[in-house]
Amino acid sequence: MSTPTFNEVSVSVSNLTYTHAPPGGRPLASAVPAVRDVSFSLKRGSILLLVGGNGAGKSTLLYLFAGKRMLQQGEVKIFGKDVFKDYPDNLVYLGTEWAMNAGVKRDIVVSDFLNSVGGHRHQKRRDHLLNILDVDLDWHMHAISDGERRRVQLVMGLMGEWDLLLLDEVTVDLDVLVRHELLLFLKDEASKRGATIVYATHIFDGLNDFPTHISHMRDGAFVLDPTPWPLDPSSLGVNSTKIPTLHSIALKWLSDDRALRIKDEKEGRRKKSRGARDALGIPIPTDGATFFKNYDYSH
Question: Is the four-CA dihedral 131, 132, 134, 135 of positive or negative sign?
């Protein structure tokens, strides 16, 4: 690839729609799309924060960007390449499922583990990350905490010179100091090397100076397309020149999302699926024989 410039488009998405296969062999058309008609682009050096509640489509979007799902409708290109057919070697995806894998909980010393995945080829960056993430090379993978195992994952994933980094909730296990140091490192990678980062998280403390763009997802679609940060207060309906914090913006967006969902449920546009089921008017048997018969799985 030619020498990159900060004007180069790193991520290009057009008319992307994706639906998970419904259970029971039902046709795909009967399911609600997890991602709906998403289109946007990012240039090198961008840091995009995906804001949205659980089930908003953030993880599915990152999976598609990482080439982990075959596209059904639309297009995703990473540095001009079709991400599924021509996976770019400068893309790194880090999600929460890695630390839960039984293979990384075996009795292997961290130094040996990192060397087995190429740590010796990236010694300078590896050592820098070991210091940032406060990792002990003598740790045994089976004997450390989830947070410490997460730090090892981050060293492993970040020690190469990646150009696009997809992060899905991987900072959730980190203590506040390590997370702060990691965010400084990532911001430096974006500003100096022109690396692009797309980050989905539910922890917004300490992020005000981190992203270059933010977005708001709801029900698989963008309510707010990726938009330069900080936002114009007038676009948020705030009568002030003071920019609200990311935490306060995310809290308002998620509160509005929940209120809209509840309104749709009450007015019959959406089936109620969350919260207490007695609100659905389903009778609960009062006699023991009938109640326990409902949970007799011996037949």
Answer: negative
